[in-house]
Amino acid sequence: MSSPQAPSLASASHFTRAEIEAGRKLFAGDWQFAIAASSLAALPPMRGVELAIAGRSNVGKSSLINALTGRRALARISHTPGRTQELIFFSGPSRLTLVDMPGYGYAAAAKPKIKAWTGLIHAFLFGRANLARVYLLIDARHGLKLTDAEVLKTLDKAAVNYQVVLTKADAARQADLAALVVKTQTALAEHPAAHPDVLVTSARSRSGIPELRAAMARLINERGGG
Ligand code: GDP
Predict the structure, then answer these.
(1) Which of 49, 83, 108, 157 has the most CB atoms lying inside 10 A of its own CB?
(2) pLDDT tens digit string along 141-160?
(3) 3-state secondary structure of 213
(4) Measured from the CB, is residue 202 less than 6 Å from ligand 1?
């Protein structure tokens, strides 16, 4: 078990109580599956603000989306066979949409599918004007991997604003976590499109979830609302 201080590491201290409350409000209410898109033509019209969630398969993406939205099984759909290569849109009570991006780094994925995945993702990242940020999830037990580095490069090229979110913080030792935050922030300093702060979360213990919501609310506020 981690100490009660765990969630505050590198995240909670950055947010005021009002910002935490704004984050809570942003996610309070009903979240729904909107659409799953496997081609550019299938993408929904741009509306409100979109925030995308990306990461390696098994990083804890579905669990984090469920924790953020307070819906226990909302993101289960991303694991449905045939859906794993799609961009999945979840719409919230305000004009915020979460976009679940296909997990990457799964060696068994067939070659042609990887190609299709890359084409759609690239087009989405390069052309989506209402995509405010990509949250790149990294497993707190493993840190950045080689495939993550490829994705960082792509995000830099697309000039999409992105931020790293560590997942499964409950499963990492406090000292290791602190070192990983520093190491990750140092690595990100070389990436022009990366947000300098790393957020630390656990979908299991819910630590860092209010702060992630607050970070999203702050971003939307900075952009002039949803
Ligand atoms: P996805 O493939 O990225 O959508 O990952 P999932 O959300 O399906 O999670 C993959 C595995 O990690 C599952 O076995 C989850 O129970 C586990 N997991 C997800 N979030 C957490 C967390 O916060 N803490 C721990 N310890 N395990 C987690």
Answers:
(1) 49
(2) 999 998 898 899 999 999 99
(3) helix
(4) yes
